[in-house]
Amino acid sequence: MSSEASPEFREYERANTTAIEATVRPVIGRYVDRLAAAIPAPLRVMRSDGGVMSADRVGGEAAQTALSGPAAGVIGALHLAKLAGFEQLITLDMGGTSTDVALLAGGSPLRREGAIDGLPLRVPMLDIETVGAGGGSLARLDSGGALRVGPESAGASPGPACYGRGGDQPTVTDANLLVGRIDPARFLGGRMALDIDAARRAFQPLADALKMTVEQAAEGILAVADANIERAVRRVSVARGHDPRQFTLAAFGGAGGLHACAVAERLGMRRVWIPRYPGVLCAVGLLLAQVEVGRSRSVLIRLGADGTADLSPAVAAYTALRDECAALMTREGVAPHTTFLDATVDMRYQGQAFELPVSFAALYGPALRSAFDAAHQDAYGHAFADRPVEITAVRVRMRAQTPPPEFTAQRQTPRTLTGAAFDRDSLTPGMAFGGAAVITQGDATTYVPAGWRARVDGFGNLVLERVN
Predict the structure, then answer these.
(1) Domain that holds residue 91
(2) Per the structure, how many domains does the chain have?
(3) CA distances from 317 to 113, 296, 300, 312, 320 (A)
(4) pLDDT band at 92 (very low <50, low <70, confident <90, very high)
């Protein structure tokens, strides 16, 4: 029922959200039930808003898992980068099929709805932009003869041509291999040998069409992939009033470290942070995520010219939502008194189509109208002091406050290294070296270009900085 899947007004968005929930609920519900029965431990599942929920709730809130994988990476990056001293972050999570980016200005950004295949999905989710540029993204020439990368992907099977599993089309991973950024003998920590000749054969038709060498065509593919990622980063930063030069680029995923410095250079960013295990940072994010529940309810209250109104419907909605969240937390095995509660009201000027959140606490003071005017000024650069204001919804979120796993920094022993290839497992805190260099490990590869310098911090993270 839409009153359960999306209990807010706006019929089109509400209908689509309900339809998506009805479509995915049986599939995800069966899968999670089988998984829960197969493991000898309580199972929790990541939500798109950065929290987790118990397996038995997934059968009734399946749409809440949209973009849950990328959300886990954001949670992991935010926590570990803060420990290392970096709070102004732009994340770059590059895997096999896509790259996900988000801007974190001290916290995890949340939006109230997203889209799946062009259809609106009204569930809270972390504000993540996705672009079809991953290691398996296919390269091609479009009808105008321009080089394109993605969104089509070779996937995991057959995968890039260099995997030797039957793939015969050029991919981003093949390109990185051909230009020397991936060591074919040390991929996956040496457990999987790559076929560079197969990559060359896959690239040859494209190189011939472009009248280039295979290596030049590979460089072109990497440049196009980097440009695609750059545009996604600009959408979460420049387009929203943030200067990316003031942020650190946090790169992870299996391929994030291969492209991070090139993307940073395009954006004028001077620092890249790469966690100790970039390929499994999303798994770390799952361990760090807290149990969380959220509920909302539509109301419609118009404030008078003096900023006052009968706010009892909003207070009643808040009380009901708070109690519902507390009951859900109890079902999750979390005592409500150990939780953090956040409540907001959606407000807009009369006649506007979209709303802004204002702290629920403002309802109990004389500054509710001025709080909304200030929020509108911050968001859009102006406010309408004479226009009537409406409250349209109340939202309550409750989050557990479980102590996170501990990460202890080690003492750094400064030491400058020379060379062009390094094994990540052999690097200890305090070591530093300049590019160009390739760093290999079991779950990822990092490329440090010329003009950049890398150092290992106390947590084993790589900090890459431009030196010119």
Answers:
(1) 2-133+227-288
(2) 3
(3) 21, 8, 11, 8, 5
(4) very high
